[in-house]
Amino acid sequence: MSRPRIAVIGAGMSGLAAAITLQTAGADVTVIEKSRGLGGRVASRRVGDIVVDHGAQNIKPGDSLLHEVMTTRLSSKDLVRIEKPVCLWSPPGTIHTPDEEYNSALKYSYYGGINTIARLLAFELQQLGGTVSLNATARHFTENEQGVELFDVNNSTLGEFRGVVVSAPLPQAADFVANSAPFTAHPINVLDRVRSLRQIEYRSCITVMLGYYRIPATPDLYALLAADRSADLLWLAFESCKGSGHSKGTHEVLVAQMGARFSKYCYLEEDAITASRVIAEVESLLGSEFKSPDWYQVKRWRYSQPVGMVYFDDANPAGSEGALLVCGDGLRPNGGKIHEAYLSGIEAGNRAKLLWL
Ligand SMILES: Cc1cc2nc3c(=O)[nH]c(=O)nc-3n(C[C@H](O)[C@H](O)[C@H](O)COP(=O)(O)OP(=O)(O)OC[C@H]3O[C@@H](n4cnc5c(N)ncnc54)[C@H](O)[C@@H]3O)c2cc1C
């Protein structure tokens, strides 16, 4: 008997987890990803010969399933434990002693960039026979008796499937589902689901990377976190703490993540202006040695982390799922975390198994 074809939209942590769960259970899974790389918000980029994590900063899986997966099934020599502490800071530039409770949780990245975790998951999926299709944006589906047909933004078909799992951030998932509603058997049910997905907003976040072709004298810590979470400079991390791939022993890159208010009001600002504001903040915190980076890059995250959550069963009401399931970090308590997104993908994969296999 042929394997039922299932589409997963999004190659972030939740989509890849759903895809592997389903492929392992006997489906033929195609992951459709709009960008040219894997990982979604678990993002790394190359600048010259070094790698910078410019989205999620570290994986703090606690004792969740993801910790077990990272250290056993996907065990890799590339995994790096970040040993140095995170310290709180408060204005005008006071750095507090490390918070032991906060720092007792293990923090990880990878020598080749934090998105290595997504590359390992995608490799596993492909070994199992699944497919990842990059640079393909799903816009909507139409429902038929066998399942769904999926279309891209040019209205070209992406294939026919028994079901589709959508793992985009919830506002984007809502757009996809709303676009599809007219082509489904029960549009009102589908639009009810859109309403529950739209309940959750996502914060935006501006990330600024500052590169130095030298190793400045830095405090003995991995990152600074603002004691007042409404501060403009929320997070400032030293990438060299993640090993040689992130610094080559000769560079330092600071990753600044800006607070919700700053990110909202400066979202449309020119890169040079945003970078100069951030450099001024960094200089006042760390001193004049950080005044003149050799390069900077700015990345804007329209959907960074969810504010609140929708329960999985509200987004996917039992009996009304049809050929559609939604997953992602907005469907988890304490969402906006890599290990929570991973768990959401497993949850969707397990529900899809019951419905479609
Ligand atoms: C700046 C920042 C810092 C963060 N820091 C941390 C941290 O330190 N630790 C931590 O645990 N978490 C952190 N997070 C949160 C964490 O990255 C997310 O919770 C998690 O990665 C979400 O995974 P996901 O699979 O649910 O969604 P995503 O990673 O967003 O994956 C969704 C994927 O779907 C794709 N997609 C969307 N629409 C379509 C479409 N129509 N067609 C095809 N593909 C589509 C997207 O391109 C994306 O690849 C941070 C996030 C950001 C942005």
Quick summary:
The protein has about 350 residues and is α/β, with parallel strands linked by helices.
Indicate the proportion of strand residues: 25-35%
CATH architecture of the largest domain: 3-Layer(bba) Sandwich
Assigned CATH class of the largest domain:
Alpha Beta
For CATH, the homologous superfamily of the largest domain is named as FAD/NAD(P)-binding domain
Question: Could you report the average pLDDT, rounded to the nearest whole number?
Answer: 95
The ordered string of helix (H) and strand (E) elements is EHEEEHEEEHEHEEEEEHHEEEEHHEHEH
Q: Which ligands does the model contain, each kind named once?
A: flavin-adenine dinucleotide
Structural class: alpha/beta
What is the global morphology? globular
Quaternary structure classification: single chain
At CATH level 3, the topology of the largest domain is FAD/NAD(P)-binding domain
| Major sheet details | 7 strands, mixed
Give the distance, in angstroms, between the N- and C-terminal Cα atoms: 12 Å
User: Unreliable runs, pLDDT <50, ≥5 residues?
Assistant: none
Strand arrangement within the widest β-sheet reads 7-6-15-16-17-14-18
Count of helices?
10
- How many β-strand stretches? 19
Helicity level: 25-40%
Rg result = 21 Å
Highlighted features:
357 residues; alpha/beta; FAD/NAD(P)-binding domain; 19 strands; globular; binds flavin-adenine dinucleotide
Tell me what you see in this structure.
The protein has 357 residues and is of the alpha/beta class. 29% of the residues lie in helices and 28% in strands. It is built from 10 helices and 19 strands. The chain has helices at 13-24, 65-71, 100-104, 116-127, 170-180, 187-198, 260-265, 271-286, 312-315, 338-356; strands at 5-9, 28-32, 44-47, 50-53, 79-81, 86-90, 94-95, 108-110, 131-133, 138-144, 147-152, 157-161, 163-166, 201-212, 223-226, 233-238, 252-258, 295-307, 324-326. The strands form 5 sheets. It has a 7-stranded mixed beta sheet with strand order 7-6-15-16-17-14-18. A 5-stranded parallel beta sheet has the order 9-2-1-13-19. A hairpin with a 4-residue loop joins strand 11 (147-152) and strand 12 (157-161). It is globular. The N and C termini lie close together (12 Å). It binds flavin-adenine dinucleotide. Flavin-adenine dinucleotide binds at residues 9-15, 32-35, 40-42, 55-60, 137-138, 167-169, 172, 176, 205, 207, 257, 301, 304-305, 328-329, 336-338, 341.
